[in-house]
UniProtKB/TrEMBL annotation, chain A:
SMART domains: AAA. The keyword Repressor does not apply. Keywords: Amino-acid transport, ATP-binding, Nucleotide-binding, Transport. This is Amino acid/amide ABC transporter ATP-binding protein 2, HAAT family. Belongs to the ABC transporter superfamily. InterPro entries: AAA+_ATPase, ABC_transporter-like_ATP-bd, ABC_transptr_urea_ATP-bd_UrtE, BCAA_Transport_ATP-bd_LivF, P-loop_NTPase. Residues 2-232 form the ABC transporter domain. GO terms for molecular function: ATP binding. It comes from Marinobacter salarius.
TrEMBL record, chain B:
It comes from the Bacteria. Keywords: Cell membrane, Membrane, Transmembrane, Transmembrane helix. Its main location: membrane. Pfam families: BPD_transp_2. This is Amino acid/amide ABC transporter membrane protein 2, HAAT family. The keyword Ribonucleoprotein does not apply. Residues 365-378 have a biased composition (Low complexity). It comes from Marinobacter salarius. The keyword Transmembrane applies. It is a multi-pass membrane protein. The chain crosses the membrane at residues 12-32, 38-58, 65-87, 127-151, 158-176, 206-227, 255-275, 295-318, 330-355.
Automatic annotation (TrEMBL), chain C:
GO terms for molecular function: ATP binding. Gene3D superfamilies: P-loop containing nucleotide triphosphate hydrolases. This is Urea transport system ATP-binding protein. Keywords: ATP-binding, Nucleotide-binding, Transport. Residues 32-272 form the ABC transporter domain. PROSITE patterns: ABC_TRANSPORTER_2. CDD domains: ABC_Mj1267_LivG_branched. It comes from the Bacteria.
UniProtKB/TrEMBL annotation, chain E:
This is Amino acid/amide ABC transporter membrane protein 1, HAAT family. Keywords: Amino-acid transport, Cell membrane, Membrane, Transmembrane, Transmembrane helix, Transport. Pfam families: BPD_transp_2 (PF02653). The lineage of its organism: Bacteria, Pseudomonadati, Pseudomonadota, Gammaproteobacteria, Pseudomonadales. Its main location: membrane.
Length: 232, 378, 275, 412, 550
C-alpha cells in the first residue's frame, strides 16, 4: 500500500530522516516505534505532505508517487490522518470538525456517516460544542472520527491512544481491527505502548535517529530489540 | 548590572560604534568643512538626521513592546506626541513676550482666542527641569494608567492593538479641539530658544542632533539591557505562552506594564527631541496612521532586533525625504512598493538580511525569531 | 548597599509579593482541601460537588474517563478557572479562590499542562531558568544575575530530564515527548510544595515511563504530587492512593487494587481488559 | 546664459490636502512655462523645483528648508492650510526666503517674508455677512465650521461683528466639527430646527475640505434649500464643487475674490491657458489659483523693478506693485503684504459654477490684523521703512516684539 | 384671473420637484391663456421678445415686475423662459443683445437655443454670452408664483405640497384667495394644510381660535407662530399658545427620539458596511488588511465610472454598480492575495506591512490615473429627499437605502459563512491550515475566494458610500480606522458582533452628539470602547471557553 524508499528529510540544517525505508502492506496494521524525537512524527508528516522531503520516494497504492502530490490531494487519494496532538479545529463545533472531511469523500455524500457516532458516542453527545472545549481524550476521539469521515484506504495514526481512557483505547484498537477486517483498511500506526502495539498491530518497524533499524512481524518483536532500540 | 550587560555584547558594541562614529563624522563634516565643499554637511542635513534619530528612538520603543512583549501598539504616536507637547509647552513659554502679541505669559494662540489666563496644566512649563521631567512623566503616567487597566483585564492581541489605536485617536481629536488649550490644529510653533540657546542657529541644531544621538544610544542600551536580562526572557515568555508564564509565578500584567511604561517614556523622549528640531508639534502626530507607520518601520527593519527598528526608521524616512523631492508625484508608489517587496522577499526584515549575511555564527540568545503564531486570529 | 538600591528593591509600584519559600501551613491537616466545588460551562456541569483532600507529602493518582473534569479540577486549583461555588484551601491559611495564578504559583503550586506548553522562542536552558524558584517580581527579575549555583541546578535538572544536548536549542523544535520532559524539568526547577501533573507520560516510551515514575515517587514525601494519567501501567507503578473522578465528582477512592476492582470504575473507565 | 531663477513649489501632492493643492502646483508650473515662453525675466529662465510635503506639517518645514537651503530657490509658492504656513514661517524667516501664500486665511499675521495673496477675513467673511444681512434680510445665523483656527477666528470675528450690528446672542448658533466629518444628520437637523424660529436664517460655513460633500448632501436630503436657509461658504470653490452633485445645491452661496464664471477677458484667457495646460476640457479654475496668478505676476514685476532676484530688493520693490487680477481689475501689494481684492458673492449653479450675484463696488485691501478682535484692534503691519513692522501697536506706538527683534537683526 | 401675488418666499421647497411641478403646470397655463383670451397676433414673437428683453434689462428692483409681466402675458412659452431663467440658463448675446436659452452650460462653448422659436442655434463661446442675473430672492419669488398656481393643480399631492409651502408665508393679501381655495378644496389633508397655513397667519394677528388649529401641528412654522404668540402682550393668547406649545413639545420629543435613533442606525449601518468586508478578511482570515479602505474606494470609483458610462441614468448606473463594484474590488482583492498575501501565510502581522504599502500604492494610483480631486457621483432621483413620516420626522432616503443595503449585505454574508461549504472551509483553514489541507481542503482556493469575498463586500460598501460622502483618493483612509474598531469591538471572527458593534457605536455616537457636540461625542465613544474592552477583553461577542484560549 505504501512503499517508502531512501527518504531524506531536513529541518533547516538538521538531517532528521536518513535514507529511510518502510513498507506498509495493504490490509494490515504497521506500527512504527522509537524513542522520543527519533523522527516518527516527522515521517508521518512527510507521508501526509506537511513536511517536504529532500529526496527519496513514497509510493502509494502501487504507483502514485506521493512526493509529487500536493498536501490536499493526498487525502483525496484516500489517506486519513490523525496527527499527534490532535490538531482539531478549536473554534469549529464537533459536527463542523467532522464535516470538514466530507469534501473528499468518493461518494460525494454530504452527511456524516452514522458509523462515526456509533464508534464514538461522545461525539454525538457533544455535537454542538466547540472542538476546543472538549477534554483531551474527547478531542482525540474527534480527531480519529474526523479522519474516518473521509473513508480512507490508508489511516495514519500518530499515537492515537495518548490521553484516552483505557476502555476507549481498547475500543480504538478494536475499531482499527474491525476496519481492517471489514473495509480492508491499511493502518500506519505510531505507538509507544508495547501492549497496545502487540495486541493490535500486524507488523512493526523501529526507528532510531531518523533511520529504520528493525522491521518485521509483530510476533518477531523481541525483548532484545526493545532493549536495544526503545530504551534509553 | 543589567544596564552594563549589553555593553559587553558584540551587537551593541557595533551598534554604538556605528552610531557614535556617525555622530562624530557628521559633526566634523558640518563644523570643519567649508560650505562649498562637496563633503560639507549642511545644517539642513544635520537637522534631518536628527529627525531620523528621533524616529529611530521611537521605533526602538515600539520594537521593545512589540518584538519582545508581543504587544502590537498602534498608539505609540500618542506617547511620542505627548512628550513632544511637553517639550513644545516649554519652548512656547520660552518665547516670552517675543510673540506677535507680546504677551509675556500667554502664548500667541491663547491671546488670539481670548484666553485670559494660563490654564493650570501649563503652569511650571516655563522651567526647563519641570518640563523635562514631564517629558518622561506625562507619557509614562498615561502608559501606566492605560496599561494598568488593559493588562489587568488581560486585554491581548488585536484587542490591545485597537484600544491603543483608540487611545491615540481620542487624544488626536481632543488635541484638535481649541478648547483644550494646546493650540488646536495648529499646535505649537514659532519656537525661539531652548535652554537659552537660539533654536534658529546652526550650533543649536548640531547640539540637538548630538543630544538625540546620545538619547538614542541610551535608549538602545536600556532596551537592550531589558531584553538581555532575565526580564527580557520573561517578556518573551509572556509573549508566547502567557498562561504558562503565569503558572510559573510571573505577574504577566506587571511585566507588561513595566516594559510598556519604559517604552512609552522612551517614545516621549523621542517626541521631546523631535519638536525643537522640526519646529512644530501638532495633533497630527497623534494620528493613528502615523503610529501604524512606525510599526511598519519596525517590521521593515526587522522585528525583535532593536537595531532593525533603527535601520527601518532611518531607511524609510530617508527614502521619504529623497522620494518626495526627486519624484514628488510618484514617491508613494516607490515607498509602497518598498514595503511590499520587503515583506515578500525579506521575511525577517532588513535585519534578517544582515543576520543571514553573517550566518555561521552562533545565533545570539535573546534575539529570537518573531514567533509565527497566529496572533491576529487569536 | 546604597539607599537608592534599597529603595528600588522595595519596589513600591509593583506591590508586595510573597518570597520564594512557601509559607504554607500544613500543621493542622492537609495541604490541599477542596469542598463542594461546582463548575459549569454554558449549563454543562463539568465539576459537580467535588470534595477532595491531599495530604502533605502525598502522591495521589487521579484517573477517570475523558471529560470527567480532571483538568478542570487543576484549572480550579491553579486559579485558571473560577468555580461557581465551593472552597479550595491550600494548607490551612490560604484560600486559593481569592488569588490569581501567579500568586498561587509563588505560594508553591506547580503545574504541568496536559498539552505540553513550553516557551518555544526560548532555549531549553532559558526555559528552565525562568522556571527557577527565585524572586519573580519585575525589578528583581530585571536585575537578576545568573549565579553559578543556579547554573548548577539547571545542569542537574537537564541531566534528570535528559536534554543536556539540546540545552541551547529553541524549545519550539523539540518533539512532543521532549517537550513533556522539558515541562517536567520546569516543574522541578520551580520546587513547588504541590505538583499537579497532567498526563506526564503521554507519548513516552515504556522506559521513559519508568524513569518518570521513579522521579515522581522520589519527589513524594518532600513534596505533594497529584498525577492525572490514563496509562494504567504507569498508575499502577506509582500509585498509593487513587481517586476516580466521574462526571465531575469522586466515584471511588482507595488503593489501586480496591479501585480497579470496583465494578463502577470498570464499567465507566477501565473496561474489562484493564481490570 | 545666466542661471535660471528657481521657483520652489511647496504644495502637497499626496495625503489629505492633495485634493486642493495639486492644482496649485500645476498652476505655478503653467505660469512659469508661460513666462519662459515670453522670454523669462531679466533675461533669465525660470525653473520650477517641486517637492511634496505630503500634507504633513513638520514635513512642510523640512521641505521649505530643503528648498531654501539646499535648492537655493529664489521664491516659494506654496502652502494651503494655516498650520502648514505656521510651520514654514520660522524657516522662511530664518533663511530669509520669499513665500507667496495663496489661500484665504484667518489673518492675524504679517511676516516680512510672506506675501498673502489670498483673502483676509475682511476680504471675504465680513462682506459676505453684509450681503446676507442687507440683501437677503437674514436675522438668525448659524456659524458652522471645522474645528481649527481659521473657522474659529473667522467665527469669532463674525460673532463680534454681528453683535455690533445688533444681532442677539440667541440668534447666533456656533458649531464645530472635526476634520473630515462625514455624518451631518444631527447637525443639519439642528440647523433646520434653529431655522424654524420664524426669522430668516442663514448658515455661514467655514467647513473645510472633504466634509462639505456629505454636509451639502445632507442639507439637500433633509430638504433645506437655498431659498429657505441659504448657506454661504468660504471654503467651497469650483474645485470642491467638481466633486459634488450640484443639482440640489443651486442657490447656495460662496464668497470669494474670484469665480471661474467671471465675465472678463483676462479670465477667459486664463481659463483657456489652464485647459490647454491640463489637457482637460472640464478643468476648472478657482480662487487660490487666481491668487497664485496674481502673486506670480507681482513677483515678476517686482523682480523687474528691482532688477535682481535678491530677496531684500524684491521685498522692497514689491510693495505697491499692481498687476491685473482676473476679474477685470487690479491687485496691489499693500505695505502689510496683503493685497487688494474685490469681494464677490456667487450662487451655486447646476453646472458646478458660481454665478456672481453681488460684488463690492471697489477692491478691498486685506487687513493683517482684524478690527473685530480685541487683541489686534490696535495692530497694523507696514513693511516699508522706517516702520518696518509686522505688528505695530498704534496705541503704544511700539512695534511688537517679534518684529522688533527681526528689525534688530536686520540692522546688524 | 391670476391673483395679484405678493411674492411669497417658499419654505422647505424641494428644489428638485420644482421641475416636475412646472411641467404639470403647462396644461394649466394653456388653459389660463384661453380664459384670458389674449389676442393672438402676428406680432406675438415681438411681444415675447419684448418681454424677455424687458426682463434682461430690468434693474434689480424691477425684475419682479418683469416676471409678472411674463406670467400675465399668458404666453405658452413663458414656462420655458421662467424655467430657464430660474436655472441661470437665460443669457444675452453680447453683440446683438438677443436673449437666448443656454441648453448646455458646461465647458467653454455653450449650446444655445432661440427662446422664441425653440430652434437650436448651435454652440457659442462663453465669452460672447452675458448671463441674465438671478439671485435667491428672485428665485424664491419665481417659485412662489408657481406654487400658488399649484394650489389649482389636479393632483392632490401637488396641491398639498404647495399648501405646505404656504405655511408661514401667508400675508393679508393671501388670506382671501386662500379662503376661497379652502371652500373649493375637497381633499381633507389639503384642507388641513390650508387651514393650518391660515391659522399661522391668524395667530400672528392675535386670533385665539387659530391657536386650537395649530395645537396638534408639528410643523416648524406653526411652532414658530406659537412661540411668537407666547411672547405677545395678550395674556390670554400667550397662555393658550403656551399650552398648545407644551402639547406639541411632548409630541416633538418622541419624534426627536425617533429621529435620533434613525440617525444612529443610519450612521451605524455605514460603519457596518465599511467594516463587514474587514470582518471577513481580518476577522476570519486574519489578514490585517490596511488596504481595506482602498478597496472601499475602488467600489466608490466604480460607481463613478458607471455613471460616466451611462450619462443621464444615474439610477441605472448605481444599480449596475452593485455587481460591478463587487467584481472590481473582488478582482483587486484576488490580485492582492495572489501577489502578496499568499506569501505571508502564518505571518499575519506582516500582512500589515504589505497591505499598508498596497494602500499607499492604490491611493496614488487613483490620484495619478483619475485625479487627485473628488469625483462627482450623482444621487438618483429616487434616492434623494426624504420619506416624510410627519412634519417633524422625515427619514432621508439615501440613508434609508444604505441602511437596508447594509442589512441585506450582512444577511447574505451570514448565509455564505454559515450555510455554505466555503464558510466552513475558511474557518477550518484559518484555524489550522496544515490540518485543513490534510483533510483535503484546497486551502489556496479557499484563500482566494475568501479574500475576494471580503474585498468584494468592501467594494459594495464603496458603492453605498458614494451616495453619502466624497468619492476621492482619501475615501479609504477615512474608514479604515473605524472599520478595525468596529470589527474588534464586536469580537474578531464574529459577524454578528460586527453588526451589533457597528449599529450600537453609531447610535451611541448620535445620542451623544446633541449634547456633547460632534468632536466630544467621538472622543467619548472612543473612551467607551477602551473601557468596554477592559470589561470584555475579547469584544462584544467573545469566543468563549477553552477553545479561545488555545
Ligand atoms: N520544526 C522543526 N524544526 C527543527 N527540528 C525539528 C522540528 N520538528 C521536530 N524537530 C526535531 O526533529 C526530531 C524528530 O522529531 P519528531 O517530532 O519527528 O519526533 P518523534 O519521533 O515523533 O518523537 P515523539 O515520540 O516525542 O513524538 C526531534 O529531535 C525534533 O527536535
Ligand atoms: N470552557 C469550557 N467550555 C465548555 N465545556 C468545557 C470547558 N472546559 C471543559 N469543558 C468540558 O468539561 C468536561 C471536563 O473537561 P476536562 O478537561 O476537565 O476533562 P478531563 O477529565 O481532563 O478529561 P481528559 O482525561 O480527556 O483530559 C469536558 O466534557 C469538557 O468538554
Ligand atoms: Mg511524535
Ligand atoms: Mg484532561
Amino acid at each position: 500500500m505504501l512503499k517508502i524508499e531512501k527518504l531524506n528529510q531536513f529541518y533547516g540544517e538538521s538531517h532528521t530522516l536518513w535514507e529511510l525505508e518502510l513498507d506498509v502492506p495493504k490490509g494490515q496494521c504497521t506500527c512504527v516505534m522509537g524513542r522520543n524525537g527519533v523522527g516518527k512524527t516527522t515521517l508521518m508528516k512527510c507521508v501526509m505532505g506537511e513536511e517536504t522531503t529532500s529526496s527519496g520516494s513514497i509510493q502509494f497504492d502501487g504507483g502514485t508517487e506521493l512526493t509529487k502530490q500536493k498536501l490536499e490531494e493526498r487525502s483525496r487519494l484516500g489517506i486519513g490522518y490523525v496527527p499527534q496532538g490532535r490538531q482539531i479545529f478549536p473554534l469549529l463545533t464537533v459536527e463542523e470538525n467532522l464535516r470538514t472531511g466530507l469534501a473528499v469523500r468518493k461518494d460525494g455524500s454530504k452527511k456524516i456517516p452514522e458509523r462515526i457516532y456509533e464508534l464514538f458516542p461522545v461525539l454525538k453527545e457533544m455535537k454542538n460544542r466547540r472542538g476546543g472545549d472538549l477534554s483531551g481524550g474527547q478531542q482525540q476521539q474527534l480527531a480519529i472520527g474526523r479522519a474516518l469521515v473521509i473513508e480512507p484506504q490508508l489511516l495514519i495514526l500518530d499515537e492515537p491512544g495518548e490521553g484516552i481512557q483505557p476502555n476507549i483505547v481498547a475500543q480504538i484498537g478494536e475499531v482499527i481491527r474491525r476496519l481492517i477486517k471489514e473495509d480492508g483498511l491499511t493502518v500506519l500506526l505510531v505507538e509507544q505502548k508495547l501492549p497496545f502495539a502487540r495486541k493490535y498491530a500486524d507488523r512493526f518497524a523501529i526507528m532510531d535517529r531518523g533511520r529504520r533499524v528493525a522491521e518485521g512481524e509483530i510476533a518477531e518483536l523481541s525483548d532484545e530489540l526493545i532493549k536495544k532500540h526503545l530504551t534509553v | 548590572m543589567w544596564l552594563t550587560q549589553p555593553l559587553r555584547e558584540r551587537s551593541t558594541q557595533i551598534f554604538l560604534g556605528v552610531l557614535f562614529a556617525a555622530l562624530a563624522i557628521v559633526t566634523f563634516l558640518h563644523v570643519a568643512m567649508p560650505e562649498d565643499s562637496a563633503l560639507y554637511v549642511s545644517a539642513y542635513t544635520v537637522t534631518l538626521l536628527g529627525k531620523y534619530l528621533c524616529y529611530a528612538l521611537l521605533a526602538v520603543a515600539v520594537d521593545l513592546v512589540w518584538g519582545y512583549l508581543g504587544i502590537l501598539s498602534l498608539g505609540h504616536g500618542a506617547f511620542f506626541a505627548i512628550g513632544g507637547y511637553a517639550m513644545g509647552m516649554y519652548l512656547m513659554r520660552q518665547i516670552g513676550d517675543r510673540g506677535t502679541y507680546g504677551d509675556p505669559i500667554l502664548p500667541d494662540f491663547m491671546v488670539f482666542l481670548n484666553w485670559q489666563e494660563l490654564p493650570w496644566y501649563w503652569l511650571g512649563f516655563d522651567m526647563a527641569w519641570f518640563a523635562f521631567i514631564m517629558v518622561l512623566l506625562a507619557p509614562g503616567l498615561l502608559a501606566l494608567v492605560f496599561g494598568f487597566l488593559a493588562f489587568r483585564s488581560r486585554v491581548t492581541g488585536v484587542y490591545l492593538s485597537i484600544i491603543t489605536q483608540a487611545l491615540t485617536f481620542a487624544l488626536m481629536l481632543a488635541f484638535f479641539r481649541n478648547e483644550m488649550g494646546f493650540g488646536g490644529n495648529n499646535g505649537l510653533t514659532d519656537f525661539r530658544d531652548i535652554l537659552g540657546f537660539n533654536l534658529r542657529t546652526d550650533a543649536t541644531r548640531l547640539g540637538l542632533f548630538i543630544a538625540t544621538g546620545i538619547a538614542l544610544a541610551i535608549g538602545y542600551v536600556i532596551c537592550r539591557g531589558i531584553v538581555t536580562s532575565k526580564l527580557g526572557r520573561v517578556s518573551i515568555a509572556c509573549r508566547d505562552a502567557e498562561a504558562r508564564a503565569r503558572f510559573l509565578g510571573y505577574r504577566v500584567d506587571r511585566v507588561q506594564l513595566f516594559v510598556f511604561v519604559v517604552s512609552a517614556m522612551l517614545a516621549g523622549v523621542a517626541g521631546a527631541l523631535y519638536v525643537p528640531q522640526v519646529g512644530i508639534i501638532n495633533p497630527s502626530e497623534f494620528s493613528p496612521l502615523f503610529s501604524i507607520e512606525v510599526v511598519v518601520w519596525v517590521a521593515l527593519g526587522g522585528r525583535a532586533t532593536l537595531y532593525g527598528a533603527v535601520i527601518g526608521a532611518v531607511l524609510v524616512n530617508y527614502a521619504k525625504t529623497v522620494f518626495t523631492g526627486v519624484m514628488p508625484d510618484a514617491w508613494l508608489f516607490a515607498l509602497g512598493g518598498l514595503f511590499v517587496l520587503v515583506t515578500v522577499f525579506l521575511p525577517k526584515g532588513i535585519a534578517g538580511l544582515l543576520a543571514s549575511r553573517r550566518k555561521g555564527k552562533q545565533d545570539e540568545p535573546g534575539t529570537p525569531a518573531a514567533p509565527t503564531t497566529t496572533e491576529a486570529t487569536a | 548597599m546604597s539607599i537608592l538600591e534599597e529603595l528600588s528593591n522595595r519596589d513600591r509600584v509593583f506591590e508586595f509579593l510573597t518570597p520564594a519559600v512557601s509559607p504554607v501551613d500544613t500543621r493542622h491537616g492537609p495541604i490541599l482541601y477542596m469542598e463542594d466545588v461546582n463548575v459549569s460551562f454554558d449549563g454543562f456541569r463539568a465539576i459537580n460537588n467535588l470534595n477532595m483532600t491531599i495530604d502533605d507529602g502525598e502522591l495521589r493518582c487521579i484517573i477517570g474517563p475523558n471529560g470527567a473534569g480532571k483538568t478542570t479540577m487543576m484549572d480550579i486549583i491553579t486559579g485558571k478557572t473560577a468555580p461557581d461555588t465551593g472552597s479550595v484551601w491550600f494548607g490551612s491559611r490560604h484560600n486559593l479562590l481569592t488569588m490569581n495564578e501567579p500568586e498561587i504559583a509563588t505560594l508553591g503550586i506547580g503545574r504541568k499542562f496536559q498539552k505540553p506548553t513550553v516557551f518555544e522562542a526560548l532555549t531549553v536552558f532559558e526555559n528552565l531558568e525562568l522556571a527557577m524558584a527565585t524572586d519573580k517580581r519585575v525589578i528583581p527579575t530585571l536585575r537578576a544575575a545568573m549565579k553559578a549555583e543556579f547554573r548548577e541546578r539547571i545542569g542537574e535538572v537537564l541531566e534528570t530530564i535528559g536534554l543536556q544536548e539540546l540545552r541551547n536549542q529553541l524549545a519550539g523544535i523539540l518533539s512532543h515527548g521532549q517537550k513533556q520532559w522539558l515541562e517536567i524539568g520546569m516543574l522541578l526547577m520551580q520546587k513547588p510544595r504541590l505538583l499537579l501533573v497532567d498526563e506526564p507520560v503521554a507519548g513516552m516510551t515504556e522506559q521513559e515511563m519508568e524513569r518518570t515514575a521513579e522521579l515522581l515517587t522520589s519527589l513524594a514525601g518532600k513534596q505533594s504530587v497529584v498525577v492525572v494519567e490514563h496509562d494504567m501501567g504507569f498508575v499502577r507503578s506509582i500509585a498509593r492512593k487513587v481517586t476516580v473522578l466521574h462526571q465531575g465528582s469522586v466515584l471511588a477512592e482507595g488503593s489501586m487494587d480496591q479501585v480497579s476492582n470496583d465494578p463502577e470504575v470498570i464499567k465507566v473507565y477501565l473496561g474489562e481488559e484493564e481490570a | 546664459a545666466e542661471d535660471p531663477i528657481k521657483v520652489g513649489i511647496l504644495h502637497s501632492l499626496s495625503g489629505t490636502m492633495a485634493i486642493s493643492e495639486t492644482v496649485l502646483k500645476d498652476t505655478v508650473e503653467m505660469l512659469i512655462a508661460k513666462q519662459n515662453a515670453e522670454g523669462g525675466v531679466l533675461g533669465r529662465e525660470l525653473e520650477a523645483v517641486v517637492v511634496d510635503p505630503a500634507s504633513n506639517w513638520p514635513l512642510f518645514a523640512e521641505k521649505a528648508r530643503e528648498l531654501l537651503a539646499q535648492e537655493k530657490v529664489d521664491v516659494i509658492f506654496g502652502n494651503w492650510t494655516s498650520v502648514s504656513r505656521k510651520s514654514v514661517l520660522p524657516v522662511v524667516e530664518e533663511l530669509n526666503g520669499l513665500l507667496f501664500y495663496p489661500v484665504q486665511y484667518e489673518g492675524e499675521e504679517s511676516s516680512e517674508n510672506v506675501f498673502y495673496t489670498g483673502a483676509a477675513p475682511n476680504q471675504q467673511a465680513i462682506p459676505a455677512v453684509d450681503y446676507l444681512m442687507n440683501n437677503i434680510g437674514v436675522e438668525r445665523w448659524v456659524l458652522a465650521g471645522t474645528d481649527y483656527v481659521y473657522p474659529r477666528t473667522t467665527n469669532k470675528i463674525l460673532e463680534t461683528y454681528l453683535m455690533d450690528q445688533g444681532v442677539a446672542k440667541e440668534d447666533i448658533m456656533i458649531n464645530y466639527t472635526p476634520f473630515g466629518h462625514s455624518d451631518w444628520q444631527n447637525i443639519v437637523s439642528d440647523i433646520k430646527r434653529f431655522g424654524s424660529a420664524g426669522k430668516k436664517t442663514a448658515v455661514v460655513s467655514t467647513i473645510n475640505g472633504d466634509a462639505n460633500v456629505p454636509f451639502y448632501r445632507e442639507l439637500g436630503n433633509q430638504g433645506i434649500s437655498a431659498s429657505d436657509i441659504p448657506v454661504v461658504a468660504f471654503s467651497v470653490g469650483e474645485q470642491e464643487l467638481s466633486g459634488i452633485d450640484t443639482g440640489p445645491l443651486v442657490g447656495h452661496l460662496a464668497a470669494w475674490n474670484y469665480f471661474m464664471s467671471v465675465d472678463s477677458d483676462a479670465n477667459y484667457d486664463f481659463i483657456d491657458q489652464w485647459i490647454e495646460h491640463t489637457g482637460n476640457e472640464e478643468a476648472v479654475t478657482n480662487d487660490p489659483m487666481e491668487a497664485h496668478y496674481i502673486g506670480f505676476n507681482m513677483y515678476i514685476e517686482a523682480v523687474k523693478k528691482a532688477g535682481t532676484t535678491d530677496v531684500d530688493a524684491v521685498k522692497d520693490a514689491i510693495i505697491g506693485v499692481s498687476v491685473p487680477n482676473l476679474t477685470g481689475g487690479y491687485a496691489t501689494m499693500m505695505p502689510n503684504h496683503h493685497i487688494t481684492k474685490p469681494v464677490l458673492i456667487g450662487e451655486i449653479q447646476d453646472n458646478g459654477q458660481f454665478s456672481v450675484v453681488w460684488e463690492t463696488p471697489s477692491t478691498v485691501a486685506g487687513d493683517a490684523w482684524s478690527d473685530f478682535l480685541p487683541g489686534s484692534r490696535d495692530l497694523i503691519a507696514d513693511w516699508r521703512k522706517p516702520m518696518f513692522c509686522g505688528s505695530f501697536n498704534t496705541a503704544t506706538g511700539k512695534c511688537g516684539a517679534s518684529a522688533g527683534e527681526m528689525a534688530a537683526e536686520e540692522a546688524e | 384671473m391670476l391673483p395679484r401675488l405678493s411674492p411669497p418666499q417658499l419654505a422647505f421647497n424641494r428644489q428638485d420637484t420644482i421641475m416636475s411641478i412646472l411641467r404639470s403646470l403647462t396644461l394649466l397655463l394653456i388653459a389660463l391663456v384661453s380664459v384670458l383670451s389674449f389676442p393672438a397676433s402676428a406680432q406675438e414673437d415681438d411681444l415675447g421678445k419684448a418681454l424677455l428683453n424687458n426682463l434682461a434689462e430690468a434693474p434689480a428692483s424691477r425684475v419682479e415686475e418683469a416676471i409678472n409681466a411674463i406670467v400675465s402675458s399668458g404666453d405658452e412659452r413663458a414656462r420655458g423662459w421662467l424655467e430657464a431663467y430660474g436655472n441661470n440658463r437665460l443669457s444675452r448675446i453680447d453683440d446683438t443683445g438677443q436673449v437666448v436659452i443656454v441648453l448646455n452650460n458646461r465647458g467653454r462653448d455653450w449650446e444655445i437655443a432661440n427662446p422664441l422659436t425653440g430652434e437650436n442655434m448651435g454652440e457659442m463661446s462663453r465669452r460672447e454670452l452675458d448671463r441674465i442675473a438671478i439671485n435667491n430672492r428672485i428665485r424664491g419669488q419665481l417659485e412662489g408664483i408657481l406654487a400658488m398656481l399649484d394650489l389649482n393643480a389636479a393632483d392632490p399631492d401637488v396641491r398639498e405640497a404647495s399648501a405646505q409651502d404656504m405655511m408661514g408665508k401667508v400675508d393679508a393679501s393671501l388670506v382671501e384667495p386662500l379662503e376661497a381655495q379652502l371652500e373649493r378644496e375637497e381633499n381633507a389633508s389639503v384642507r388641513n394644510r390650508i387651514e393650518e397655513a391660515l391659522a399661522i397667519y391668524r395667530v400672528g394677528e392675535g386670533n385665539l381660535e387659530a391657536v386650537d388649529v395649530l395645537a396638534g401641528s408639528l410643523h416648524p412654522r406653526a411652532r414658530a407662530a406659537l412661540n411668537e404668540a407666547v411672547r405677545s402682550d395678550n395674556p390670554a393668547l400667550a397662555d393658550k399658545a403656551e399650552q398648545a406649545l407644551a402639547s406639541i413639545e411632548q409630541k416633538l420629543k418622541l419624534n426627536r427620539a425617533a429621529e435620533t435613533l434613525y440617525f444612529g442606525l443610519s450612521l451605524g449601518s455605514v460603519l457596518v458596511l465599511a467594516a463587514i468586508g474587514l470582518a471577513i478578511t481580518f476577522g476570519v482570515m486574519g489578514v490585517i488588511n490596511m488596504a481595506h479602505g482602498e478597496l472601499i474606494m475602488l467600489g466608490a470609483y466604480t460607481t463613478w465610472g458607471m455613471q460616466q458610462l451611462l450619462p443621464g441614468q444615474p439610477g441605472l448606473a448605481l444599480i449596475l454598480s452593485i455587481p460591478a463594484g463587487f467584481l472590481v474590488a473582488a478582482t483587486a482583492g484576488i490580485i492582492i492575495e495572489r501577489s502578496v498575501i499568499q506569501f505571508l501565510k502564518g505571518r499575519p502581522l506582516e500582512t500589515l506591512l504589505a497591505t499598508f504599502g498596497i494602500s499607499l500604492i492604490l491611493q496614488q494610483l487613483v490620484r495619478t490615473v483619475i485625479s487627485p480631486q473628488n469625483r462627482t457621483v450623482v444621487t438618483p432621483e429616487w434616492m434623494s429627499g426624504s420619506l416624510v413620516i410627519n412634519d417633524a420626522l422625515s427619514l432621508t432616503l439615501n440613508r434609508l437605502y444604505v441602511l437596508a443595503f447594509a442589512l441585506i449585505v450582512f444577511a447574505a454574508l451570514m448565509m455564505i459563512m454559515r450555510k455554505t461549504r466555503l464558510g466552513l472551509e475558511v474557518r477550518a483553514v484559518t484555524q489550522n491550515r496544515a490540518m485543513a489541507r490534510s483533510m483535503g481542503i484546497r486551502a489556496t482556493r479557499v484563500d482566494i475566494m475568501t479574500f475576494a469575498l471580503g474585498s468584494g463586500v468592501a467594494g459594495l460598501a464603496g458603492v453605498a458610500l458614494s451616495q453619502l460622502t466624497n468619492v476621492g483618493p482619501n475615501l479609504g483612509q477615512n474608514y479604515i480606522i473605524d472599520s478595525f474598531m468596529v470589527v474588534v469591538f464586536g469580537g474578531v471572527g464574529n459577524l454578528w458582533g460586527t453588526l451589533i458593534a457597528g449599529l450600537s457605536l453609531g447610535t451611541i455616537n448620535q445620542l451623544l452628539e446633541p449634547w456633547a457636540g460632534a468632536v466630544l461625542a467621538k472622543i467619548i465613544v472612543l473612551v467607551f470602547i477602551i473601557l468596554f474592552i477592559q470589561k470584555r477583553p475579547k469584544g462584544l461577542f467573545p469566543q468563549k471557553g477553552r477553545a479561545a484560549e488555545g
